[in-house]
Amino acid sequence: MQAIENIQNLLPFDGELYSYGKIYSEAQANANLNNLLQNIAWEHDQVRIFGKTHITARKVAWYGDQGRTYQYSGSVKHAHIWTPLLWEIKSQVEEICQATYNACLLNLYHDGNESMGWHADNERSIVRHSSIASLSLGSRRRFDLKHLATGEKRSLDLENGQLINMKGAIQEHWKHALAKSKKVTDLRINLTFRCMI
Ligand SMILES: O=C(O)CCC(=O)C(=O)O
Ligand SMILES: [Fe+2]
Q: Has residue 177 been placed in a domain?
């Protein structure tokens, strides 16, 4: 893990993106992945595209502070209460990113066929310009960013145990996506810690 002073913004303008590198050893990252596979209430997501509801192959889960519901993607999400491990990871991520979070969206990609399309996390239910910390566990996958106005692109290979942090105006000016990959045959879990209104 790098000291916070050494961390550089990876975006050229209009927002902030930081990578803290791998915050867990390979063994610890694998142990966390296995724990989350077992103990998270995974379910398939529903997304509406051009008015039609689709069930995603990717699985998701919402966790957060007790009794909270969140407006997200046009529906109300009831958050499960933090598991002991999620709470521990949240505390570690808060310390590294110097921010506090009250919710976590988890995504489970079974292999490289499963992906996430271009989007910004710019819902009104997210505190404006707040930090969204994103922890990767499992298979290495490519994370792409594209500036809305200029088309400027950036890409990062996200490793097992790597933590990144999106902040400031990034969600207003950049979209991001998790690319498909034919080469990836194993699973990946991603955790995004968020500050919801
Ligand atoms: O899996 C990833 O790295 C991306 C997840 C993401 O963009 C999101 O949950 O909003
Ligand atoms: Fe996102």
A: yes
CATH code: domain of residue 163: 2.60.120.590
- The answer to whether residues 68 and 79 touch, using CB atoms and an 8 Å cutoff, is yes
Q: Coil, strand or helix: which one is 63?
A: strand
Ligand 1, residue 109: give the atom nearest the CA: 1
Query: Does residue 2 belong to any structural domain of this protein?
Result: no
Cα(194) to ligand 1 centroid in Å equals: 11
Backbone angles phi, psi at 73, to 5 degrees: 50, 40
User: Does residue 4 lie in a domain region?
Assistant: no
pTM: 0.94
Give me the interface pTM, i.e. the ipTM: 0.99
- Which of 59, 126, 143 has most ligand 1 atoms within 8 Å of its beta carbon, as the pocket-test mutant? 143
